[in-house]
Description:
By secondary structure, this protein is of the alpha/beta class. The chain has five helices and eight strands; from the N terminus they run H-E-E-E-E-H-E-H-E-H-E-E-H. It has helices at 6-21, 93-109, 126-136, 149-152, 185-196, and strands at residues 47-50, 64-66, 72-74, 83-88, 115-121, 142-145, 165-169, 175-180. It has a six-stranded mixed sheet. A two-stranded antiparallel ribbon has the order 2-3. The longest helix is centred in the middle third of the chain and has 17 residues, at 93-109. It is found in: Cell envelope.
Amino acid sequence: MRTSSPRGAAALAVAALLLAGCGSSGEAGVPGLRDEAGDAFVSGDSTVQVVPAAERGEPVQGLEGPTVDGEELDVADLRGAPVVLNVWGSWCGPCHAEAPDLVAAEGELAGLGARFVGINIRDRSTVAATGFEEEYGIGWPSLHDPDSELLLRLASDVPPNTVPATLVLDEEGRVAARLLGRVSRATLVAVVEDVVGTPAQGTP
């Protein structure tokens, strides 16, 4: 049955993606996935969870500091707009695989005012991180988190050894959705549309 409301259409799309996302992408527990220090990491299992507005916790705090480009950023300053928060590392194969989808989703979601922010973990030097951004044409900022200190502040939402991982924050800065593992353009766009309650311009 079709619905004529934008929020209803987005909800139906997310429901379908949730059913598909509850399985494994085949990347979970990738052998040999290690950071620059040689510590083992696992890729998430492509689980998608949207948190109803009434069940969201307090706004995320303490995500601030230097970016890989040497600028200062405080995620709290972006409140008033939905924020896509992506945890990644240049050493992470699934992060390379999902980067083109993130770039495509960012362009598609621009009309909804969505802001993208990365948290770059375990890259001791920013050289590898900036090279990753240049390779994929990533234009949004990424906080540099070589010791995973910022990531630990998200421990209730992102398992500390899971990468990549993506959170969607609502306009109040609360966690509205969690996507663990490699994310696709279609899934991310549908989730953000559901959080905002409006389809992205040009989305069928």
